[in-house]
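Reopening: structure tokens for the magnesium ion complex, inputs below.
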Amino acid sequence: MTETRQRTGAQLLVDSLILHGAEIGFGVPGESYLSVLDALHDVDDQFKFVISRQEGGAANMADAYGKLTGKPGICFVTRGPGAANAAVGLHTAHQDSTPMILFIGQINNQYAERESFQEVDYRRMFGQMAKWVASIDRADRVQEMISHAFHIATSGRPGPVVLALPEDMQDELTDVKEVRPYQRVAAHPGEADMHSLREGLAKAKKPLVILGGAGWSKKGCDDFLAFATAFDLPVACSFRAQDMIDNRDPHYVGDVAVGLNPALAKRIAESDLLMAIGSRLGEWSTVNYTLVDIPRPRQPFVHIYPGAEELGRVYQGDLLINAGMPEFAAAARKLPPLKPAWSEWTKSARADLEAWQKPVKVPGNVNMSEIVNWLGKRLPADAILTNGAGNFALWVHRFYRYGGFRTQLAPTSGAMGYGVPSGVGAAIIYPKRTVVSFAGDGDFLMTGQELATAAQYNAKLIFIVVNNGMFGTIRMHQERYFPTRVSGTMLKNPDFAALARAYGLHGEIVEATKDFEAAFERAWSARTAALIEVRVDPDAISPRASLSSITADALKAQRQ
Ligand SMILES: Cc1ncc(C[n+]2csc(CCOP(=O)(O)OP(=O)(O)O)c2C)c(N)n1
Ligand SMILES: [Mg+2]
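Re-run output (same inputs, fresh job):
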């Protein structure tokens, strides 16, 4: 007689993670999932559990993992407060289409619906931010539900899944079932679709691609580049998806995002075939929904997207193709090339970008355009640059040339506090790659405690804090609409370099452009992670305008 193998719910959960290829997870412990923590103890040679200092940090690290690998980022948090802290990372994973599975320790099933200690109904709490929210109430459903979570997080338009783990379920014994690793499910473009695409190109004189979204792979990006090269297409990238193409390639013509190059905006308006490939064409990639007419774009419009639900949602298309991005790119690569009628158009679009990326003049002793330009030459092509939200990021997005597939970790959700944990996560996931994490002074302190995580796991990355003593973005908008009436936007900051040293990291302060290089080289050769605080002139608010000129223009407009 064969003996039936039995495992607890917690053990089965951990076994399932390993079966589906998870190798690392991020979290903050809680008494609500002690049995899972114990099961993780048994597999610490196969699954690394990285603890962070706040659940928002852990969820952002899991998002970084999902973005970098295309596999679901795994995050464990405790009920109520832990889940609330993790929400920021879940929201980012939702808006950024990042595969993620957030596990939340849950109250004992027997106490449900009494508002027992830290009890929350996660279906209601996270309903809008996740592809699927469920509670694994019985141990005999663990294998099925974990398998479903991996499938749904990675298939179609990728995104986050939330699974609650009631305490009693974690200890319940059940029989082990036979399960296979998950498969990512993607639609393939039809032959007729690809034929129509080529026909559309044959009629075009000024085609333009807006590339973006999620669900890409290294091979998918290589195939796409081969297609863009064969057809000599100008390729712009959507907001914070600048790394889907090597920015040094002559087909890359800039990003369609905050601080959009007016010359590129003009080209989008003039294009006679607009192809959104992988991008949803969200608010930032359309300058508040003004660049492309809704619902019917004025030029022939092709939209290629992994989730059918997004096609025709905002923009009607001449050709709508539901396909996984690597699947589309593989088919596009095989299209017989045309003799492009637009080579000059592509060349001049690239020339516009090169002019746009030349360093600009700014007030004060520190010029971030020159610093980022220098970093572009200094860093290896596969360096990963991370950032959260704030005007400081404008310098990075505009003046850095991302080296291609997954060299940019930046939230399209616009979440402050993303740059530090995603950078720490990236350095733990890929210890051999260079990671540079950018933050503003406001942005940095939202998640600055993750310096402790960097120290704990010997993550060797370089943090650059652009300190202007304020929530600069908001102050900029304030000056535009309420000039000289500063309200709620000034900051009194710590000595960031000393703070880094307190965590055991190397710290530097830079107050002039000319000192950056030496400080960076010291940071580079430090044995630990390092932080460089760059003190900028608050007037140098953006590459396009100084703060004082924005105020002056607003006052002038008020007088008229
Ligand atoms: C979590 C979160 N809170 C608030 C905001 C609104 N917000 C956007 S940018 C910004 C200021 C960023 O300040 P800082 O990091 O110092 O960058 P700076 O704009 O000064 O360069 C704020 C408050 C946000 N995007 N995310
Ligand atoms: Mg600031």
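Residues 389-392, 414-417, 440-443, 466, 468, 470-474 surround thiamine diphosphate (ligand 1) (CB under 6 Å). The longest strand covers residues 100-106. Marking as resolved unless the reporter disagrees.
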